[in-house]
């Protein structure tokens, strides 16, 4: 580790240390260069580490996110973790993060049990077509066929700070058994500038289960993916699969032994999607 750099460790989208998605948080990264940032993220080994530098006003920060292999434009779980870490260190409970994808507003409060909970509002999202060729190649890496997809959740590419391939799966059992060809999916996602694949099963009108392969970051799977959750909320709105205003729950990480809960609020219109979750510090 680089001398003098204090890396905090938080898990996001859970109020228990054994759940959620761990993230590294560096609260004062102003003196670090790109090589330093990547080296620290690689040593920590989490799917992302957030590097924070103060901006012009109180409560404003410049934030960069690094996986063990590369910088990513935006990371939801590291944003939630960072906001709670900042609040734990005395920052205001309303924050503005300046990221490579744009400005993200975060508020921090507490739930009924006293746990800190952060809510991010994504950048303006967009939903675009996923070509038949892309879908076929992605299915091949997963060992799935087109018939394994839910026809009511058609494939799309969702963006709410990063790009995600969204695939609806026909059964919970199929999602639980998910495995994939790491190198093949990594190559496909690199060519298509995709951050994760958001694989989802709809349990009921407002409850979803998700798994998110993340090979481009050097990580087999994310146990909680806030950026993908925001993109998925925009997907439901864009395809009129839910009637705004609406709140959905996404359960992720269960099949990895790190249960996570992401709460997604979807308003009418085209604005940002709100994603909320608890975060706790790891020792």
Question: How would you portray this structure in words?
Answer:
- It is built from 6 helices and 17 strands.
- It is an alpha+beta fold and 283 residues long.
- It has 2 domains: 8-121, Diaminopimelate Epimerase, Chain A, domain 1; 126-281, Diaminopimelate Epimerase, Chain A, domain 1, CATH 3.10.310.
- It has an 8-stranded mixed beta barrel with strand order 1-2-3-4-6-7-8-17.
Short description:
The chain has helices at residues 34-44, 76-88, 132-142, 172-176, 182-192, 226-238, and strands at 8-12, 21-26, 49-54, 60-66, 71-72, 94-99, 102-110, 116-121, 126-129, 156-159, 163-168, 196-204, 207-214, 219-222, 246-252, 260-266, 274-281.
What would the keywords be for this entry?
283 residues; alpha+beta; Diaminopimelate Epimerase, Chain A, domain 1; eight-stranded mixed β-barrel
How many beta-strand segments?
17
- Quick one: overall form? globular
Tally of discrete structural domains: 2
CATH fold node name of the largest domain = Diaminopimelate Epimerase, Chain A, domain 1
Strand content: 35-45%
Task: Based on the coordinates given, report the CATH architecture of the largest domain.
Answer: Roll
- Whole-number radius of gyration? 18 Å
- Given the structure, what is the number of helices? 6
